[in-house]
């Protein structure tokens, strides 16, 4: 049947509806509301206040000084998101997923949740349309400076970012030492390694290896405590610097984890060339990043394409394919040798390159 003008109608309102697919779409439409509810909850320390037991909405409101009914409605929204359960009316406990939003628990994501629901991370997304139109970050437009410049001006936020990055690295840190032969090297230089979470994990597994942790003063702020807690302070030299200006000499293995995706191709090539200037001929470079497939698979790795958009909006970098990494290595004076996926649920891969 046509619409009277010889055209088939675009929609058939009597056709069967895939309600499961429609429900998935509804969850996406409401996704920003879920993010805001989660953000409010972590800022109120809801999950830590409930702890391993139960807590009533009235008791939580009393401790927070918040409106009792509004507090109940927030907690019920969190239960609807399966982060809390409500075994009795007005009484709540954390679920298995909600447990990861408590600080101090194994695998905690509390710092990540706090950082990635912070208005500083979200406001640039309000201008995503502009980023897509222009290819430029919108963080700079909103805040009048670049993302890392903003962190430098706000030490508390910088510390929160460092802790979030540390939490986000822990799964990778537990895996990387077992999927590369670190034992054939003597000194590992971690470029932009933050508090040393990944470096510490590698050094624990390879007691003959020494380390150099290289980052800005802000990036290294929590490193001394981390390394001291790990009993590794004597095996790691801390060096403050700017990887756009130089890289420290003295290593035979150089590591970049979650650095390359922060920057455009030109700046990435600059980082790689500085490493190429100091790495010995027999040395190796490891880049630990997600590696995008050439086309989006039917079961895409969770979140990596949203992370790619976050790089566009907030910092100006991007996620890359294997061919992209090969081109970057060539531009930086390296030859890509291998790409080793880490086992699920890790989305990172180990890219090894040698001096050209």
TrEMBL record:
Location of the O-methyltransferase dimerisation domain: 27-101
Keyword DNA repair belongs to the record: no
All copies of domain O-methyltransferase C-terminal, residue ranges: 125-334
Biological process, per Gene Ontology: methylation
Record keywords: Methyltransferase, S-adenosyl-L-methionine, Transferase
Pfam families listed in its UniProt record: Dimerisation, Methyltransf_2
Keyword Amino-acid biosynthesis on entry: no
Residues of the active site: 261
Sample GO molecular function, one term: O-methyltransferase activity
Record's protein name: Methyltransferase
Species in which this protein is naturally found: Streptomyces parvus
Species classification: Bacteria, Bacillati, Actinomycetota, Actinomycetes, Kitasatosporales
């Amino acid at each position: 049947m046509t619409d009277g003008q010889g055209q088939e109608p675009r929609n058939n309102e009597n056709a069967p509806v895939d309600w499961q697919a429609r429900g998935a779409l509804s969850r996406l439409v409401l996704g920003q509301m879920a993010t805001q509810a989660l953000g409010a909850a972590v800022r109120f320390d809801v999950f830590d206040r409930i702890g391993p037991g139960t807590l009533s909405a009235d008791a939580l409101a009393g401790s927070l000084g918040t409106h009792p009914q509004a507090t109940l409605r927030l907690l019920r929204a969190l239960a609807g998101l399966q982060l809390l359960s409500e075994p009795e009316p007005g009484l709540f406990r954390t679920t298995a997923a909600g447990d990861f939003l408590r600080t101090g628990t194994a695998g905690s994501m509390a710092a990540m949740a706090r950082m990635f629901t912070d208005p500083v991370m979200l406001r640039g997304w309000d201008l995503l349309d502009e980023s897509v139109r222009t290819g430029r970050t919108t963080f700079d437009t909103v805040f009048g400076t670049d993302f890392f410049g903003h962190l430098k001006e706000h030490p508390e936020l910088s510390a929160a970012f460092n802790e979030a990055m540390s939490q986000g690295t822990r799964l990778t840190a537990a895996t990387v030492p077992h999927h590369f032969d670190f034992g054939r090297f003597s000194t590992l230089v971690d470029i932009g390694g933050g508090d040393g979470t990944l470096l510490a994990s590698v050094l624990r597994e390879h007691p003959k290896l020494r380390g150099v942790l290289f980052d800005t003063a802000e990036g290294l702020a929590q490193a001394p405590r981390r390394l001291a807690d790990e009993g590794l302070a004597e095996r790691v030299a801390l060096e403050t610097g700017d990887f756009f200006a130089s890289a420290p000499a003295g290593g035979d293995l150089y590591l970049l984890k979650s650095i390359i995706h922060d920057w455009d191709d030109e700046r990435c090539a600059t980082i790689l060339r500085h490493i190429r200037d100091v790495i010995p001929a027999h040395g190796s470079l490891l880049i630990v990043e997600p590696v995008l497939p050439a086309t989006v698979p039917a079961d895409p790795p969770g979140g990596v394409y949203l992370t790619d958009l976050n790089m566009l909006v907030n910092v100006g970098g991007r996620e890359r394919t294997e061919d992209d990494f090969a081109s970057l290595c060539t531009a930086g004076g390296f030859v890509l040798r291998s790409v080793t996926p880490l086992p699920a649920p890790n989305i990172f891969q180990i890219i090894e390159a040698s001096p050209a």
